[in-house]
Amino acid sequence: MILAATRSSLSLGGIFACVVYCFNVSVSFASQPPNIVVILADDLGCCDLALYDGWVETPRIEQMAKEGMRFTDFHSNSSVCSPTRTAFLTGRYQQRSGIVDVIVGSREPDSGIPSSVVTLPRVFKDNGYATALFGKWHCGYQDEYSPIHHGFDEFVGFLNGATDYHQHSAWRIGLNQTDVPGYSTDIITQRSVDFIKRHRNEPFFLYVSHAAVHNPYQTAKDTPDKRIKGENPNRINPVNRAKYKWMLQDLDRGVGRIIDTLRELNLAENTFVIFFSDNGAVGMSPQEFRHLRGGKFSHYEGGHRVPAVAWWPGRIKSGVVSSELIMGFDLFPTFVEIAGLQQNVPTNLDGLSLKKHLLEQEDVPSRDLFFGYEPKLGTAMRRGEWKMIVKDGDVQLYDLKNDLMETKNVAEEYPEISRDMSQKITRFKQEVTSGT
């Protein structure tokens, strides 16, 4: 924390008080492990938020950005749910866990994060943190892959990729299939608030995994008895666009409730909160707001460049905008370093810690990053402002500095860059499928 004061405005007693205050704050940070709260939206693209020149105002997320750090080049590890969540929870490329596509519920009994893989909640649980997941899992449908077996003390939510927002007969409380009444966003928010209150006196890791704004597009008023026969809740049209906007703003209100709870309990200065999305947009935004090419199920920037905001009052400087190239799996090493738990995690993580970038605005080291969705979309790669997509021998190279919309393939204009990046993609695919 930085305290600024002039000689004329601060007495000797005031200086002493400030020194004591700063000492107490530093002691508090050092003596009590920080809490971690992850708020994950589903199918939310940059083009949806006014914070990113989009069409929906989200005042509470916008306030987080004013008080913290907003990222402009933050990426989910894939353009679909399951791989992204797997990478975030393991700190490694999702291919290493065998998950490259959406896990389609009970139809894929052998798909999920293996119990042998060290996960982020497991590290925190083993080091005395209370842990909880409320909402969407989507990293394995069978009980053996349950979040309960991956380090979460508490789990209330659903295992597959989507849920009716009012009918929850397939939800789980722990390992038990239980009907959880209520509106999905409200349930997830309320459970999260209750968890924070119950664990206010001990460190906690909380994963708030929203169903919103994934289809079906249903508001709190769209209860089963009020639904119009023949109306498709999954279709992109003006009716559902209005519902989508309401759902996003309702999610924003939920974010606000969590922030308000942390403030009310005097936990804000010892709690790191990050908000981001699991993949790009689904095309609900009006055409004039679509400033990135592609969306969900795409290797173009619109598929995996997502909104992200980090908030930690007194630790993260207010109003910072980061243009560093960052991926979701970087959060694993970041969280464990912030909590001082580096010695308890695997040494083979693919992500890197962002602690110094977040707290001191240090640059993130340059590196090659890969986005795999094999075999459907091939493999994509970022190297600074260069972007490559390779599929079935077709090579696309884009200069994002001058062509963020990825309109011109310049592979033939830069043969050396194309050749080197193509070779790196080939080696990457061999490495992540080798079982190491």
Features:
ten-stranded mixed beta sheet; Arylsulfatase, C-terminal domain; alpha/beta; 10 helices; 2 domains; disordered N terminus; 436 residues
What is the end-to-end distance?
42 Å
Main beta sheet strand tally, sense and closure: 10 strands, mixed
Tell me how many strands there are.
Answer: 16
User: According to CATH, what is the class of the largest domain?
Assistant: Alpha Beta
| Quaternary state of the chains | single chain
What does this structure look like?
It is a single chain. This protein is α/β, with parallel strands linked by helices. It folds into 2 domains: 35-365, Alkaline Phosphatase, subunit A (3-Layer(aba) Sandwich); 372-432, Arylsulfatase, C-terminal domain, CATH 3.30.1120.10. Helix content is 28%, strand content 17%. It has helices at residues 12-31, 59-67, 81-90, 120-126, 184-198, 238-264, 301-304, 331-338, 355-360, 415-432; strands at residues 35-41, 69-71, 74-75, 130-136, 154-158, 172-173, 176-177, 204-209, 271-277, 308-311, 320-322, 326-327, 368-373, 378-383, 386-391, 394-399. A 10-stranded mixed β-sheet has the order 7-6-5-4-8-1-9-10-2-11, sandwiched between helices. Helix 5 runs parallel beside helix 6 (238-264).
